[in-house]
Amino acid sequence: MQSKPKGLKVLVVGAGIGGLAAAIALRQQGHEVEVFERSRFANEVGAAIHLTPNANGLLKRIGVDARKYGAVLTEQLRDYNSDGELQYTLDTSLISGSWQHEWVLIHRAHLHEALKDKAQAPGKGTPVVLHTSAKVANLDPHAATVTLEDGKRFEGDLVLGADGVHSVARRHVSGKDVKAFSSGRNAFRFMVPRKEVLEDPETAHMVQTNGTVLMWHSADSKVVIYPCVNNEILNFVCIHPDTLTNEYVTHGWNQGVGKGTLLDAFKDFEPGVLKLLNKADPETLKIWPLLDMETLPQWVNGRLALMGDAAHPFLPYRASGGAMAIEDGLSLAVMLPGDLRREDVSTRLHLYEKARQDRVLQIQEYTRESGRRHVGGKEAAIISSYIYDHDEWDHSSEVLRQHLWAQNKQVYYRQPTVFGPMPGPRQDFWGRSRAAASSKTKFCTASVRLKTSRTLLKNLLPNASYSFTGMGSVAYATFSQTTLDGLDWLAGGGYSHFGLYIHDVQYKSADGQITEGSYLPVLFEDLVDPIISGREELGFPKVFSTIDVNRRRHSYHVTTSWRGGVWGRLSLTGLEETSQEEQQTNGATKTPPNLLLHRYMPCVGKDQKGIPEAEYPVVVDSAQDLTIVPSRITRELRATDAKLEIDGLDWNQLPTLHHIVSRLAEIPVYEVIEAKVVEGEGVADVSSARKVEP
Length: 694
Hints:
Blueprint: E1 9-13, H1 17-28, E2 32-36, E3 48-51, H2 53-61, E4 72-73, E5 76-81, E6 86-91, E7 104-107, H3 108-120, E8 129-131, E9 136-140, E10 145-148, E11 153-155, E12 158-161, H4 171-174, E13 181-193, H5 194-198, E14 212-217, E15 222-228, E16 233-241, E17 255-256, H6 259-265, H7 271-277, E18 286-292, E19 300-301, E20 304-306, H8 321-335, H9 345-372, H10 377-388, H11 392-406, H12 435-438, E21 442-453, H13 454-458, E22 466-468, E23 474-487, E24 493-508, E25 514-525, H14 528-538, E26 542-544, E27 546-551, E28 555-562, E29 565-573, E30 576-577, H15 580-586, E31 595-602, E32 612-620, H16 622-628, E33 632-638, E34 641-646, H17 658-665, E35 671-681, E36 690-691
């Protein structure tokens, strides 16, 4: 038995930036979320982070405003070589207009505070349950369970491994213990009060401007300084070859190191930089290895998905590690809406992987290349555009839409296709049949069957493969007007159509196969929706015309026009209701003949005029249509007199229809064979229409 959608139980291993962002977004989607964090967040002091436009926009989407937590607007980037020569200055205000969201700089501890506040505060969804000092010992990707070191076991509908570069969850996806390895670089990090730098005459000029990111680079080392905490604190990241400091490094994040080691690693940089580095507090100066990892072939196993550094560790270039974790978290929320069934979780986790992998792997390569050499100029601008111009919520939403549309192959697509399958008379947006609703639709048809010129009607057949089944100089045709009402696909509304049906026509294929029916050369309709669906999906020769019906007790009058230019009148008078016995005698209850159409789609291009993109016959099987949507006549009225008048007018009065109507006006009425009005329920959806091989 399938489970009822009611919100899922989500277990998140790791309360880093990505884990908390995912928890908030999933909570807001209607899920119950518990987060397990091994630490008490003490490791989130003493460092800052960029929130680039792609990341900041996602945080705003879930209600996290970094500016309220001391985030600083990035206003300028200045890049120097290690000798202090300015390479370029970028005023970000000149390009910020191309981004919907700001690029800001924030203390990691303050960002975590913002995320924790949002996760646990009252608001949309159930507040997140956060377990700290909760070290995960084991988890089951198929049962979606998490077991802590103290033996406590938690059950959920899915598990997210957001536990960083030294992930416990990773081995349950990869099947082996995939370890991160050194990238060949280590980094010092520390913070200095900006006031201290401003009070030093030798360094004050470097940090005069608010929101300025300063960078100095040599062939193998880099110093980056930027403000946070309302421009009051300066964050330092000093990247260098690991051979200079490996003796001080294990695999931790909070390893202390002496100031002399820092100054020695950057001894070849300009004196001003060394003056800044000398302001590091030895008590808070830390060093950590910059780790990389082999690419995981998959991030998902059963109901476990990896995210952030657990799936794809980033080097600290291009400000993308935290941003990619945030993007992962919100992508997961898109793929896991509140009404998702438990049995669909694994499929959606794989869809998250599909949505994210290519982008993440590309940006990882950008960061690796930025670590190998200095990347600047146009190349850097192209990379920045790729990273920062992206909105993962919108991207993942489109991936999900395409996935959902692809689940049902029996759907109609027609222009504009980018919005998905097109609802119409035969199906709703999701491809579900409207046949049941169509059986309740009401119709009223007024028709005049007449004897006329065979030669003239033959001129309305598309080509020599079409012909009449019989012989003689006369042929039969019907002018018919139908009003439909109560159409499900038009929200209970309706429309009218008026057409010419040429009877006793056959189409002969190249292999000699004969297909018989009544041929429809033109059908006028007074609503654009059925015109488009009929032309594009089925090949009907539909065009627009205003159709007015004036009905009285014993008469029925139809007027057709185009913007005031009346071109047709059909009148049936002396209407009297017939009995069921008379209807059977008159053949009213018989299955109507098949319908023949000729589909034509022109090529695009002025040099392709008169060349079809597609051209072939179409047959509508009337008997089959009746098995799909049964039709029932509720009333029939026969006329004692009928009159048909068609005037081709001119090109000025009928600028788009004159060539059609003038040909119809040529049809002589030798004799009116039958004139009647038929009312009933059940309108064929014409889903039996099929291509006839030429």
